[in-house]
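Working notes for the structural subgroup meeting. M.R. asked for a predicted model of this chain before we commit to crystallization trials. I am recording the input and output together here so anyone reviewing the notebook later can reproduce the run.

Input as submitted:
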Amino acid sequence: MKNIDKSKPVMLTGATGYLGGHIAKNLLENGHTVHAPIRNPENKDKTKSLDEVANNSKGEIKYFKADLLQEGSYVEAMKGCELVIHSASPFIINTKNPQKDLIDPALNGTENVFKTVQKTDSVKRVVLTSSCAAIYGDGKDTLDYPNQTMTEDLWNTTSSLKQTPYSYSKTLAEKKALEMTENQERFDLNVINPSFILGPGVNPHGTGESFSILKQMGDGSFKMGAPALNIGCVDVRDVAEAHYRAGFTPEARGRHICSAENLSFMKLADMLRPNYGEKYPLPKKTLPKWLMMLVGPLAGIPRQFIRDNVGFPWKADNSKIKRELNMEFRPIDKTVNEFFEQIETAGVFKKK
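Returned structure, recorded in token form:
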């Protein structure tokens, strides 16, 4: 049971990212000093949103030049820290080079962070951002799980470099973190396993899969219908809060599924309809699976993904995170409307 000194700096990787931005905001608003290793600290466009948060909070942020793939580049940023939060990892669904774009940064980045943790005597705890993708690979996998429900005891055993490589990258990275935490007692490891993250970004002009899905809801991409995909959803602000509590709750241990609600793509569209149905071509029906098998490959969605994911249920047990970290989750209806409003205000939609 380790108590973390809140007067000591906290090192956070991925601070300029979608989730990392909210973790940084949470730390700053609670008065912490954040050590943020980023690739190019001189790029003020990258740091602008966080700088504004820091200027209006009790905390302070310091940037350090570092690279996920460069061994030893976290040494300076980690000095004097008792808590390290490693949230930097790419979230890309479609890539032609999954080894370079997903596996290398996720796996090697985790290894580099933990090598420095092993050499930094001040560190007492690491909080790792993993994913529910490290628990299951495809929707059909959960059919074999007890009660067809994901729990922290289960692992993704079906993903590979060729099949759901993003899920494979998260599984490899989390297992590497566990391996590098073994056989020592100086620092412990807490893991947050979020489902699909939604909600307004610290940077309103953010990019990534979460922004893409909401944009597709409004830009006509799903005008013919929404895919019959079921997903877990969680507000980005709640995921950030879960990281904060995992960092500063002495009793917290191990993995924590971080998911608020189980939804379908069609349900997300229905949540937006009262406010945006008149203005944007939101999907009005669910596409049948046979039609997705025909048209999916034309949109870059592999038939194997459609076969193994479309039409399957999605259930996860979030009782551990509620019990251990005392988490309560925002309703996704509110989350998705606030997110859509932010994207609309940023001017990315063309109205019909």
